[in-house]
Amino acid sequence: MTSQAPLLSVKDLKVHFPTQDGIVKATDGLSFDLESGKTLGIVGESGSGKSVSSSAILGLHRGTSAKVSGEIVLNDTDLLTISDEQMRRRRGKNVAMIFQDPLSAMHPYYTVGNQIMEAYLVHNKVSKREAKTRAIEMLDRVGIPQPDRRVNDYPHQFSGGMRQRAMIAMGLINNPGLLIADEPTTALDVTVQAQILDLLQDLQREFNAAIIIITHDLGVIAEMADDVLVMYAGRAVEYGPCKEILTHPEMPYTWGLLSSVPDVTGDTDARLIPIPGLPPSLLNPPSGCAFHPRCTHKDKVKGNLCKTEMPELLPGNRGPEHTKRCHLADPEQIYFTEILPEIAPDLVEEFAEVNPDGSVGDAEPVRSSDAAAEAEEKKI
Amino acid sequence: MTAYIIRRMFTGIIMLIVMSMVTFLLFFSSPVNPEDFACGKNCSPALKAQTKKALGYDEPVTTQWVKFAKGVFVGRDFPDDPALKESAPETIAECPAPCLGYSRTTNSTVTEQIKEAWPISLSLAITAFFMWMIGGIVFGVIAALRRGSIIDRGIVGASLVFYAFPTFFIGLFLYKFLAIKWEIVKIPEYVPISEGGVSVWFQGLLLPAFTLSLVYMAGYVRMTRAFVLESMGEDYLRTAKSKGLAPRKVLYKHSMRAALTPLVTMAGLDLAGLMGGAIITEQVFNYPGLGKLAVTATRNFDLPLVVGIVLVLAAVVIVANLVVDLLYAVIDPRVRVG
Amino acid sequence: MTDQTVTSDSGSAKSAEQSSEFAASRLAGGDGRDAILEVENLRMYFPVKSSGVIRRTVGHVQAVDGVSFQVPAGGALGLVGESGCGKSTTGRLITRLYQPTGGKIMFEGKDIAGLSPKKLMPLRRDIQMIFQDPYTSLNPRHTVGAIVGAPLLIHNVVPKKKVLPRVQELLEVVGLNPEHYNRYPNEFSGGQRQRIGIARALTLQPKLLVADEPVSALDVSIQAQVVNLLQDLQREFDISFLFIAHDLAVVRHFCPEVAVMYLGKIVEIADRETLYNHPQHPYTQALLSAVPDVKQAAIGGRRERIRLEGDVPSPINPPSGCRFRTRCPLAQEICAKQEPPLLQIGERHKVACHFAGEIGQHPTKPVTARLLGIDDQGNPDPGATPDPNAVEQPGFADTWYDVQGGHLGAKA
C-alpha cells in the first residue's frame, strides 16, 4: 500500500457465472494491490467469492462459462489479456496455489515425488533425474523427514500435515513471485496448523514471495497477514492494514465475524454475538448494501439508505488506508461502546490506543510485521 | 498377496460347490421329467425306466450330486454299472475327468461339448470386448470434453438408442442389410484360426461381434463420460491445471487415469459374463457358442449339460472377479490387497 | 482421593449450600451437583487383522485406553484433542454406538457399558447425540417432520396424532419455522440442518447430549448461532453435555470443565480457568499456544508458540510409558519406563505428567516418582512404597497432591 509499483494489482475484478436462473455474480468488482514479501489475507464465509477470485488470478476459469472482467496485473502484465498458452506458462511458475484439502488436491494414483517433479518439469528443461533431486530438496526444505525415501510414497501414505507440506513444496518449486493459499490449514489440527503457518512465514522470508491467504479464520489472518480484505457477497466490504482492521473494524459484518468467534483467552462470560440470518443469494443479492438484511445497525443510518443504496468502498475516519463499504457515520464509536465491551471488555483500552498505521499510543510508528518478527518463537 | 489369492480361491471353490447344488435342486424342482426328453419319440415305459436308470435319475438328488462331484475329479461311466461294463462295454459311455456329465440327447460328454463351443464364445466375447472398449472410451471422452454441445448430445442420444433396442433387432437388421443386401461384410460363420487364419476368423466374427459390442458400447460411452466429467471436478485436476500443465497432459495423465480405473471392474466382469456365451447374439447369427448350447440344453431338459455350462460360467466369473481385484490393487495404490 | 464425601468446605459458600442439598457422593459439577455420567477406565480396542490365510488378530488400535471422567448433571464437560486422539470414539461409546472393550459407563448410577441392545432401548431416550456433519447425518429422503418425529414413534412416547404438534413445538424451540415440517433437508442451509439435528436429539427430552463437533462444519457466523442455541437449551431443559470438539476456543466458551485427550488418554482435566490459564501438561500447553488468538494478535501480543515436532504416533503401537514422550520437549528416561498417572494436583485439576508444571516452571525431577515407588529414572526403588491412592478415579477428591512440595495436599 505504498507508491512503489506492486507485484500484483487487481482492479474491478468481476467473475460472473451465467446460469439458467440468471447471472451468479460470484465476484463483483474487487480491487487490491499486493507487494513482494507481503501477505494479504482475504476473509469471508463460504460463497463470499474469495476462492473464485483467487482462481481468476490463476486463470482457472478459462475455458468455462464464467465471464471474467477487470484487470489482474502481475509483473506488469494484465493476465486477462494474454492467451491461454501464455497464462499456462505463468501458472505454477509466476503464481502458484495451495489448496484446502491436501488429500483431495493430490492425485491418488501418482507418487508425491512424481507430482512435485511434474510441476518442475513443465517449466524447466531438465532431466527427470534432476527434477527428482530438486523435488527431494524441496521436500527436505518443507520439513519432510527422510525426503529421499518419502518422495516415492503415495499421498495416502502421508499424514495430513505432511501432505500440506508437500503441496507447499510443489507450489514453491519454481520460486513463484505469488503464492495463493486457499484455506491452507482449515483441514488440519491446530498444532499442525501452527507448523504450516510457521513454515509459510519462513519460506516467505526466504523467497520474498507475496502470499494471498484465503481463510474464514480471523486468527490465521491475525498471525499471517499484513493487509486484510473482508469479503461479503462477492465484494470487498472492508480493506486495510491487518492490525488496524482487527482493532478498529468499521463495518458491521467484520464486527460480526469478530464477535461470533470465541477466543482462547479473554472473558468466559463474554457473549457470542452471532450474525443473524443467512448469507445472501448471489443470484439475487439484496438491494442496497448486501449485508443490510443481517445488519443490526442499519437503523442508525438515516432514511432507508442501507436498503436503497450500495455504499462505496471509501476511507472512513481512520485515514486513507482503511476503507469500508458502509453508510454508518461513526462506526468507531459504536464498536467501542456497543460491541467491544461485550466481546472483550478487557481489551477496549488497548485497542483504542492503536493508531491507523499500526503503532500504539503516541510512540514511534512500528510496522506490524516487525512486531510479529519480534515475538520470537521459543521452545520451552 | 499369495495368502489373499489362496483365500479368494478357497471361497471361490465353496461358491462353485454351492452353485452346483443350487442348480441341481432347481432342476429337480421343475415339473418336467428329463428322461422324457432323453428317451426319444418311440418311448415305452420300460425304455423310459431304462433311460432313467442310465442317466442316474432314479437315485436321490444327493447321491446324484455326490456322483457328479466325484466325476469331476476322477471321471465316471454312464450308466455307472460295473456288471454291465463287463458284459456289454459298448452300452457304456465313458466320461474321463474332468467329467461334468454325459448328455443323452447328443450322446457325448458335457466336457466335450463345452470344449467345442467355448472357443466360439471366447472369440466372440474378446472381439466384441475390444470393439466396445475402444468405441466406448473414445466416444465417452469426446462427449465429456464437448459437454453440452451437439456432438455430446448426438453421442449420448445414439447410445441411448442402441441401449434401448433389443439385440436381436439390431442383429437381424445388420445381418439383413450389411451382410445380405449390400454384401459389405461376410455372412457370419465361425472358422477357427487354425483352419482359416486370423483374417477369415475375424471376418466371420465381425458382424456378431459388432452387434454385441453396440449394446455394451452404449453403456460404456455413458459411464466413461460420467467418470471423466466427475474426475474433472476433482481437486487434483485443479492442482494439475494450476501447475501449468498442458491441457492434453491434464486430460491424459490426470483425468483419464482416474476416470478409467472404475471401468476396469465393470469391463472385467462384463467380459467374463460374455465368455459364458452371448445367448441372443449367438442365436441370431446361428453361432454355435456356449450361449446357443445353453439354450438348446435347457429346452431339452438336458440336466448334465445345463449344470456343466452353469458351473463353467460361474468359474469364469469367479476367476475374473479375482483378476479384477488384483488388477485394481496394481492400478490404484490406495488399495492394498492383504 | 481418600475422602470422597463432599463436605461443606467445598468451593464457595453458594455451592456449599447446594451440595448439601444434593448430598453428592463425589464432588461433581461446579455447583456441587451429582454426576449424571461417570466414566471409569473406559477402553476401546479395535482389532487389526493379519493378512494370512487365516485372519488372526495381530494387534489393536487402542482408540480409547483407560479414560475416566465425570459429567455433572446440568453441566458440560468438554473433550478436546486432535484428530485420532479418541474423543469421538469416547462419545460413541457413551451413546453405546460401540460396545466398549472394558471399563464402566455409569449413567445415573447404572453401568451401561455391557448392556444388551434391548436393555439399552430405554436409555437411548436419555442419551442423545448431535453429529458433526449436518449434510450427511440427515436422511435426504425423509421430511424434517419424519426425522424429528421418528424417535417419538419408535419409542411410542406419544399417540400418533400428537406427533406433529410436538414436532412443530421442537422446530420452534430450535428456531426453525414450525410450518416447514414437510420440507426435505436439502431445502435448508447448513446451520438450519444442524438445528434440525438438534431438534431430533431433543425429541425425547434427553438428560445427556453428546455433541460431537456440532459446529465445526458451519460457517463462522452460523457457529455462534448454534452455540448460543445449545447454551439456551441447556439452561432451559437442564441438559448435561459432553461437548466434543477440536476447537479449543469453542469448548472453552461452552464448558466449565475441560479434558484434553492425546492418543486415547486424558492428559489433563480441569475447570476451564485453570486449564486455559495455568495448564501443566506440556501437550495442553503446546495445543493452546498453537491456537491463533485474533484479539491478542491484533495488538501484537502473539504468545510464545511451542512447536511440536513430527506427527502423532500410531495408536496400534503407542509409545511405552507416557504416550506423549516422543514429541515432548521435557521427556526424560522415566517417561519411557513409567506411564504417569492422572494425578489430582489441585482442587479441580488433574494432570498426567511426570514433570507437571506451568510453562517455564516445569520441575527438573519427576514429581511422581515417590508416589509410584520408583526412582527418578523410572526404575523400581526398593526403598519407596507406591502410594495406593495414586490410582485414577473419575471425579475430584477433597485432597490432592501438591506437586511442588511433593506431599499430600488438601484444601485450605
UniProtKB/TrEMBL annotation, chain B:
One annotated GO biological process: transmembrane transport
InterPro entries reported in the protein's UniProt record: BPD_transp_1_N (IPR045621), MetI-like (IPR000515), MetI-like_sf (IPR035906)
Extent of the signal sequence: none
Pfam families for the chain: BPD_transp_1, BPD_transp_1_N
Keywords: Cell membrane, Membrane, Transmembrane, Transmembrane helix, Transport
Residues forming coiled coils: none
Compartments, as annotated in UniProt: Cell membrane
ABC transmembrane type-1 domain span: 118-328
Main location: membrane
SUPFAM superfamilies: MetI-like (SSF161098)
Transmembrane segments: 9-28, 120-145, 157-180, 200-221, 258-285, 305-331
GO cellular-component term (any): plasma membrane
Annotated membrane topology: Multi-pass membrane protein
Highest taxon of the lineage: Bacteria
Family according to the record: Belongs to the binding-protein-dependent transport system permease family.
Name of protein: ABC transporter permease
Organism expressing this protein natively: Nocardioides guangzhouensis
UniProtKB/TrEMBL annotation, chain C:
Boundaries of every ABC transporter domain copy: 48-288
InterPro entries: AAA+_ATPase, ABC_transp_ATP-bind, ABC_transporter-like_ATP-bd, ABC_transporter-like_CS, Oligopep_ABC_C, P-loop_NTPase
Pfam families per the UniProt record, alphabetical: ABC_tran, oligo_HPY
Record carries keyword Chloroplast: no
Bias type Polar residues, positions: 1-22
Keywords: ATP-binding, Nucleotide-binding, Transport
Gene3D superfamilies: P-loop containing nucleotide triphosphate hydrolases (3.40.50.300)
MF terms (GO), sorted A to Z: ATP binding; ATP hydrolysis activity
Region feature (Disordered): 1-26, 374-395
UniProt record, GO biological process: peptide transport; transmembrane transport
Highest taxon, organism lineage: Bacteria
Family designation: Belongs to the ABC transporter superfamily.
The protein's name: Dipeptide ABC transporter ATP-binding protein
Native organism: Nocardioides guangzhouensis
